[in-house]
Fold each of these.
Amino acid sequence: MSKTLQIIDAAELDAVHVYMKGASFAAFLDQCLKQIATHVADLQSRNGSSERLSTMAHSMIGSAGIIGARKVEALARRLEVAAKAVAHAGPELDDLAEQLMAAWIEAAKELQWQRIV
């Protein structure tokens, strides 16, 4: 894996690759891509509940950490904290959710590239 990655920490993903090897790593990437699709769908269908956004963001922190997606992880942490601080979602939370969704989409592109390397 020699391509420079912008969202995912290549060294962390390489460590997972070395640990898992071949087909296991491919299956891991497939599972990560499915999880990202779920996260993006959740963010697209958010209903304005700050509690729901906080819960979703918390789940996303773990998913991002596993693949070394530090930017995604940081955005999810920001969304979680911001969502816990307000009773109702508003423009600030919507903006963070949109940024997080865009970062997840970029992470998915990088993982898809890893599938073909």
Note: Residues 85 and 105 are 26 Å apart (CA to CA).
Amino acid sequence: MTGVTAWYVRHGHNPANQLRQLSHKVIDYPLTEFGITQATTLARQLAGQRAPAPIYSFPLRRAAQTAEIIAARTGVDMTVLEELRELYVGSLDGRSDEDAWATSWRLGSPTSRATARLLREVRVFG
């Protein structure tokens, strides 16, 4: 049996991180210079390892841009999948107030939900 290599990578830094802003669908920032540096550094580290084939990304620019940087460095194709979008928060998108954050966490942790979905999807793609 041949093993499958899977990398689960969080996107690089973007303006929503600085603003503590919910950005899941409507708010769609690219990476900051720091985020580009993070992605480039990670890509360089991953380039020497067994690469997955292909790389999947959720559709927001910060994630796709991070994945593109890694894909370019590793020589692996990158595909954007809407199905990997972590969470849609509706009218909370773009907000940075405590009430918005509390409500989004009551909806479910985006990170844990995305991870659980990823583990289910791996069986589909693998």
Note: The mean pLDDT is 81.
Amino acid sequence: MEYRWFKDGRMYVKSKDIKRSTVFGVTKEYFDEYIGDQDHFEGNLILSDANITSLGNLESVGGNLGLSYTKITSLGKLNRVSGNVFLNNLDITTLGKLERVGGAILLGGTNLKSLGKLDQVRRKIECTKNTSTHELLMNSKFRDKIVIL
């Protein structure tokens, strides 16, 4: 059973099977208790305007991963996302250990300096023109997947 409620403009989720939920805008405490200990999250994990600095022990996400206006500076141990990856207005400079993305990558307001271990992106990579991310992608094996925002 899953319960959802809103407080202070954020949606909170409580579920016995949290690994299969879609989670939005949770608090740092909730993330640390229910998600950060897991190595795999089966659902969609969308974190926006959250006071979260790390993805904890997460190595894979079975759905989409969306990070927007969070304090995350590293993707940590994350190496695979089965769906799309949305990184919007983050202070990360590398994709770190992320190797495979089963969908698209959308990079808005995120200036990467390294693609880290990224090896496979099934669909497109969207980025803003004339940014460090755009320049990095133009000089990578993903050049043919670039779509300018």
Note: The first strand starts at residue 2 and ends at 7.
